[in-house]
Amino acid sequence: MLAERRHQLILRALRSGGPAAVTDLSEQLGVSPATIRRDLLKLEEDGLLTRVHGGAVADEGDQPFAEVAEVRVAEKDAIAAHAAAMVADGQSVLLDIGTTAYRLARQLHGRRLTVITSNLVVYEELADDEGIELVLLGGMVRREYRSLVGFLTEDNLRQLHADWLFLGTSGVRPGGQVMDTTVVEVPVKRAMIKAGERVVLLADAQKFPGTGMAKVCGPEDLDAVVTNAPVDPATRSSLEEAGVEVVVAGKVKA
């Protein structure tokens, strides 16, 4: 197997399954542990993963939409179903970029709503649903990430107000700070927060603490967090001290 193909498979395994040991990766790929160690060293040098004792963990970075869309689908669907139930017919919903927002859009079919988004996959999902008033924000197209960004997107958002914003993230720090790996998306997310009456963060268990070098907002900008698993005590305390409701999908209240 060519090294490039091994690298792709290693990253896919780490991103879908979390941290993995050298021995496990060796068995999965059918190569020696020494080969895996060399691969991990190269991938770490390229900034794509972090080696830990006995293995590695992926640095998710700026992954293409199609790749992320295949990861943790059941968890995202559980979060999306709970989020959809929060919205009443006749309300307006602002949907962020990302795959969890897309899973939420799939839950909105047949509803009488206004949906505003810069997420091209959300637009494609809802375009034929005549019961939904669909507003697509303008901006520069990021083709691989299926989103619109830039000053045009931000200007559009300054003219709008939504009852709900459902926000995505790359990671949530123990202090409750919402982070993102994609710097160019951050100004759009901040403009969305200003346009939303109620701001709900959608974050599966892998987002605690997740990744991200750019701060989107603090916990004081959120009204609720919907996740699929209990949040670690430090993060939960920071969120609740800021008045944020933490909800585990499938339960009345976490």
Automatic annotation (TrEMBL):
It comes from the Bacteria. Residues 3-58 form the HTH deoR-type domain. It holds the Pfam family HTH_DeoR. CDD domains: HTH_ARSR. Keywords: DNA-binding, Repressor, Transcription, Transcription regulation. Coiled coil: none annotated. One of its GO terms (molecular function) is DNA binding. Repressor of the lactose catabolism operon. Galactose-6-phosphate is the inducer. This is Lactose phosphotransferase system repressor.
